[in-house]
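Q: I have 254 residues here and want to know how they pack in 3D. Can you give me a structure?
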Amino acid sequence: MASIEDLKKDFSRLIKEEKLSHSYLLFGSESGAEKFLFSKELANFLENKKWQVSERPLLDALMLSAQSDSGIEMVRSAANFLWQKPAVSTKRTLIIDKADHLTLPAQNAILKIAEEPPRHALIILNVRNYETLLPALQSRFQKIYVNSNFQFSIFPATAGPRCGGGNFQKKDEFKILKFMKAATSEKKEIIKNLVDEEKENSGMIEEFVTSLIAELRKDPIKNYQMLKNILERWTLINQFNVNKRLQLEAALIE
């Protein structure tokens, strides 16, 4: 997985090259603190060119925390904010923490903004599980998985930072290529061995999955379905007590 510093470098480059996406969805990590912290630092970097949380209110950033009954009125207020021109930044940044608490009408309202966003708008949603959002809304956002150790993985989208590979990719890239070319029975055996190794060497599965994603993203159109499957199953593995072997087989074996 990519470190926080790697992610900041990627976003700094995208901002400099004016290739920043209009919308990002940060998910994972039960506490949520990591996602919100990065979101606030990004907003401050856009406005003050510093990767840190601003000590004073930002002129071009609106930060909201959704509640269980947060509805369409909150989103309408946010929409009015986004349509105003930036005062000092190149973006008007809307951050909604705990966006999975938004009501369905509120999600639909966000979707309408994301479908035709103002040119200068940046929308960041922080959620624990992105599958709690409407599928149409999910598809409009560049997804970034965040774990409790403040490490990140970038998942497929039309634009955005690269997906950083872990140590597994650097040391054992041939294993990734071997897996992709293997027959079904061989893939099952590789997954079985990987799960067994995880018991002795924690992090093996995460490194394998991250490196496999990096390889698949070389041809995202061809590998779209597998990438989508990995994202869905990886969310389940990280958030629930599920059988890792079965989840990996479901994601990686056709």
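Q: Anything worth noting?
A: Confidence is low (pLDDT under 50) at residues 156-171. Residues 167-252 form one domain.
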